[in-house]
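queue> pop job 88
queue> type: inverse folding (structure -> sequence)
queue> payload:
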């Protein structure tokens, strides 16, 4: 047996009751103690070969086998060495008995499974990646279904109204209600146009092709125009719409996008404010930033929804419950516009008492927006 194991490639060892080597095979020496001889290893322990952590673990196993007489079969463990890379092995350890059956030590055999473990770890990483990708695909599929349902609803409502009033026009011709019918058709057509514009904007944003046309702009003037555009809507709902604009230096922004931002915030404020309420728009300067804020006395936003209101297609619980129309894209688009201008947008809300959306834009904004935004031109207007 000694002669056989001395030349075998198998990693075999024999130890006494104190876990000192009695014999080691040539394969064991080649794997764990190259350069040493079997005679040099006799009487030594794992602490002379392996790291203290690994040697302590092996000693604990061997003492357990000596106490119980129970073998340890196929244990996969990480071997940590001194001065070279760790490895994984599958180890079987047995009690070593004399001719009378008394335990006089241990013996064992180990097999290197490093390649197998690494392959399994790689497969596990791939599986985790696939699981993550599948979850992403399921989320995309869910968003797609929500998107189709939402857009179908948002398209159906104004189209139904347009078709209905066109039929009324045909029936009544140029009667006294013709102008009112045309106004309704126009409002619903504009609603459809806004939805298509929002979807186009979302597509540009996702593809990293958000276009900014930076111009030297009067923010207060933009706010005046946005408020006047929203005033008829506010008046129809008997909502007071006020503007307070202090002096703000002209700043380099995309006036079309900032107007879109203000329009989104103001229309949202009016839409979520009950009749008889109030919406206030302010433009000011604070700490080297232009500050645009829109405050309403509306239904507010519950805390759970405030964390998600800038997500695309997200609709608050209150909006769903009260059947308030909307695509769930307005705030997503608003945030994208603000971030493209290197600014921030925040919300403060008290449920049932109203909300305030605050936009901060750096006054020193130059001609280079954040990555993903393409500057077409920078002119003075």
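queue> result:
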């Amino acid at each position: 047996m000694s002669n056989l194991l001395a030349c075998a490639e198998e990693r075999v060892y024999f130890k006494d009751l104190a876990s000192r080597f009695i014999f080691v095979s040539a394969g064991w020496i080649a794997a764990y103690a190259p350069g040493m001889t079997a005679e040099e290893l006799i009487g030594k322990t794992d602490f002379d070969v392996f790291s203290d952590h690994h040697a302590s673990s092996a000693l604990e196993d061997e003492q357990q086998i000596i106490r119980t007489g129970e073998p340890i079969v196929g244990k996969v463990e990480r071997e940590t060495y001194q001065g070279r890379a760790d490895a994984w092995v599958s180890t079987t350890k047995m009690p070593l008995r004399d001719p009378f059956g008394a335990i006089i030590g241990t013996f064992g055999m180990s097999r290197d499974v490093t390649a197998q473990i690494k392959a399994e770890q790689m497969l596990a990483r791939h599986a985790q990646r696939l699981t993550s990708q599948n979850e992403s695909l399921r989320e995309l599929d869910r968003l797609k279904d929500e998107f189709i349902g939402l857009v179908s609803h948002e398209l159906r409502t104004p189209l139904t109204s347009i078709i209905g009033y066109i039929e009324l026009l045909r029936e009544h011709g140029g009667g006294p209600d013709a102008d009112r019918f045309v106004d309704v058709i126009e409002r619903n057509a504009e609603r459809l146009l806004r939805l298509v514009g929002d979807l186009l904007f979302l597509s540009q944003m996702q593809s990293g092709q958000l276009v900014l046309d930076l111009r030297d702009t009067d923010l207060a003037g933009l706010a005046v125009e946005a408020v006047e555009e929203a005033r008829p809507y506010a008046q129809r709902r008997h909502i007071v719409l006020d503007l307070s604009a202090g002096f703000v230096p002209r700043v380099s922004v995309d006036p079309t996008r900032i107007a879109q931002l203000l329009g989104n915030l103001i229309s949202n404020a009016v839409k979520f404010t009950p009749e008889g309420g109030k919406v206030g728009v302010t433009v000011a300067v604070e700490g080297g930033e232009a500050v645009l804020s829109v405050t309403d006395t509306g239904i507010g936003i519950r805390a759970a929804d405030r964390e998600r209101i800038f997500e695309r297609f997200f609709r608050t619980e209150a909006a769903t419950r009260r059947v308030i129309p909307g695509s769930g894209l307005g705030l997503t688009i608003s945030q994208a516009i603000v971030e493209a201008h290197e600014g921030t947008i925040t919300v403060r809300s008290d449920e049932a008492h109203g909300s305030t959306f605050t936009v901060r834009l750096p006054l020193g904004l130059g001609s280079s927006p954040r990555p993903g935004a393409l500057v077409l031109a920078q002119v003075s207007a």
